[in-house]
Specification:
The protein is α+β, with helices and mostly antiparallel strands. 41% of the residues lie in helices and 15% in strands. The chain is built from 11 helices and 10 strands. The strands form 3 sheets. The chain has a 5-stranded antiparallel beta sheet with strand order 1-2-3-5-4, covered by helices on one side. A 3-stranded antiparallel beta sheet has the order 6-8-9, with helices on one face. A two-stranded antiparallel ribbon has the order 7-10. A hairpin with a 4-residue loop joins strand 4 and strand 5. Helix 6 crosses helix 8. The two termini are 39 Å apart.
């Protein structure tokens, strides 16, 4: 899971556990009796929504009854230190007040377990975790207005700022130098361009990669480093109605999912990734960035150099998502509906941004951010 070269093998080693086998894992590893189990959509791991039976005879009769069983693919399971750090960060954030999952401990009192399975031709190993199921609707399912966009931007900043104080002996495992989803590795997308036809879409990707090399890579040493969640997309943020307000502001974040793309990056990466994903379902995608930026900068004001890179970084994240989805579809055609979620609107949003140009888009974003009375001097 640590390099672009491994992306293909990751897709080819996605777990294929049946419901029955997954239920057996929950019972054998975590000691819980499964009453119902349902598969959940996933990219290259395998997830299940698990319901467990609680009785007065169990060790925790008042504990949670709904969990998510996460089975990492065989490639990522080769880096258990990384998965351990990601898991510990989830617990760290939960203790700090974030709506992240808690972990069910194994019978051996660990939060992860490495399970070996005889597939007939070989022994395959998978890291297995059981997390509490978080309530709420995916933010992709609602109409997202300015206040919620602002709150999501602020959430992204809070995450990065809080993770500054996260410590673990293996935290260096988050320095995933060739990780395909880290924004600084946009040029690695060239290896996957064969997944695209020779058309306008491919030309846009090549254009962004060229601009990234010329205008972003030369400035990386001016960006402030931090640990990024790296995947605050519209399916990884859960919301629920707020009891204290109405209308658009009547939603609050109830869950943050999927820390598998965590890595060392930069503050500006996090806000750019968040802007891009909040644009996906929006009817006014270009307007989104200013609200998210205002929320982020209410806690972490960007420097002038960082601000000047946001436009290209948003375009670059579109490229990562669109190219890798096309590549993954070649390997997992049966998972196309899930993999191509971004592509439904992503190509036209990227084209719109490039047609408008950086200056025009920035004028809209920065003016919107200014309207919030940001402390940042624009």
């Amino acid at each position: 899971m640590s390099s672009g070269d491994e992306q293909q093998s990751r897709a080819l080693t996605k777990p294929t556990f049946s419901d029955v086998h997954a239920s057996a894992l929950v019972e054998s590893v975590f000691g819980l009796k499964v009453s119902k189990i349902q598969p959940l959509p996933s990219y290259d791991d395998q997830n299940f929504h698990v319901y467990v039976s609680r009785t007065k005879d169990t060790s925790a009769p008042d504990g949670p009854t709904e969990y998510v069983l996460k089975i990492n693919n065989t490639e990522s399971s080769k880096t258990p230190d990384l998965i351990e750090v990601q898991s510990r960060s989830i617990l760290f954030l939960r203790a700090a007040g974030f709506p992240t999952a808690s972990m069910c401990r194994t019978k051996g009192d660990n939060i992860t377990s490495l399970v070996s399975v005889d597939s007939g031709s070989e022994i395959k190993s998978y890291v297995v975790r059981l997390m509490t199921y978080l309530p709420g609707r995916r933010i992709a399912e609602v109409s997202v207005g300015p206040r919620l966009l602002y709150d999501v931007g602020r959430l992204a900043a809070r995450l990065d700022k809080t993770l500054e104080t996260f410590h673990h002996p293996k935290v260096s495992s988050l320095r995933r130098e060739n990780f395909i989803w880290n924004l600084k590795n946009v040029p690695l997308l060239e290896k996957y361009l064969d997944a695209l036809d020779q058309n306008r879409n491919r030309e846009m990707i090549q254009q962004v990669i060229r601009l990234f090399r010329d205008e972003v890579m030369t400035k990386l040493n001016h960006f402030r480093e931090c640990i990024n969640h790296g995947d605050l997309n519209d399916h990884n943020i859960l919301i629920e109605p707020s009891k204290s307000t109405t209308g658009d502001a009547g939603y609050q974040v109830s869950g943050i999912l999927d820390f598998d793309d965590m890595s060392y990056g930069y503050y500006v990466f996090e806000v750019a990734i968040t802007i891009m994903y909040m644009m996906i379902e929006s009817q006014s995608p270009i307007q989104v960035g200013g609200h998210v930026l205002a929320g982020f900068e209410s806690l972490i004001p960007l420097t002038a150099v960082e601000r000047g890179a946001v436009f290209l970084l948003v375009c670059s994240r579109f490229c990562q998502s669109l190219v890798m989805a096309a590549h993954a579809c070649q390997l997992q055609p049966e998972n196309k509906d899930y993999l191509m979620v971004t592509a439904k609107t992503g190509w036209k949003h990227l084209e719109l941004m490039l047609d408008m140009g950086q200056k025009a888009v920035e004028e809209i974003w920065f003016e919107t951010a200014r309207s919030y009375g940001s402390e940042v001097s624009l």
